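Trying the structure run again after the queue cleared.
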Amino acid sequence: MFGLFDSLDEWFRGILIDGIIGNFLRMFEGLNSRVNEIAAQVGETPAGWNASIFNMVRTISETVIIPIAGVILTFILCYELIQMILERNNLVEFELSKLYTWIFKTFCAVIILTNTFDIVMGVFTIAQHVVNGSAGIIVGSLDMDIALTDLEAQLDVMTTGRLIQFFLESSILQLAMQAITICVFLIVYGRMIEIYLTISVAPIPFSTMVNREWGNIGNSYIKSLFALGFQGFLIMICIAIYAILLGTIPTADNVHAAMWGTMGYSLLLCFTLFRSGTLAKSLFGSG
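Done. Tokens:
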């Protein structure tokens, strides 16, 4: 009779151990793959991330937004010319050099407006170079083989009641980790969507850059472009810190505590990724 109960207990323990290990694998494999995916995606320019979306945004901007920007630019330049004439007593005291300066500004404004997307891509090319250069600081992710060896060794000495508790905890942690991976996905893809939305209206702020009174609109826009570009660099730093913290998991004496610690690290990663956009804007003064 006792042999039967022992066999059932051993069978049930095996199911619990297999379930805990399965939860452990799904928990970390999903997050590790998502983190590696982030490292690849944040280094992409808008044109490289999704060429179809970029071409669509560029076409809309060139056919719809640039004509509006041209009207705004014409208004600004005409207003500036009229103001310059009136300031010089209706051309009585007018200096010809002022007119040459206005013509040069008009030329520069037209060049900037007609090359808007080249300038925008230049900003993101610079940011991409920095992000790709920082990719080497990511030192890796969780070594699953070492972690599983320690996990199995600790599970074998646990009581059945403790295994049941550990199984429930690991199931909850797995669901929480899946939610975190979804949040990480939304952050990375949301940043790229924000970039496309921002560059779609680029000609309008660019049309104001040569005017002293309106130029702050264009300057703020340039700052926001740099903030979006270098947000990728801050994301890479977050991932690098997370990878270092995650690398301590296999050396932990208590895998149970290590799992909850990793949950805390993952929540911290999610929080810092959410904050990366705000931090980038504050660093570049565009917030």
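The chain has a mean pLDDT of 78. Worth checking whether this holds up in the mutant runs.
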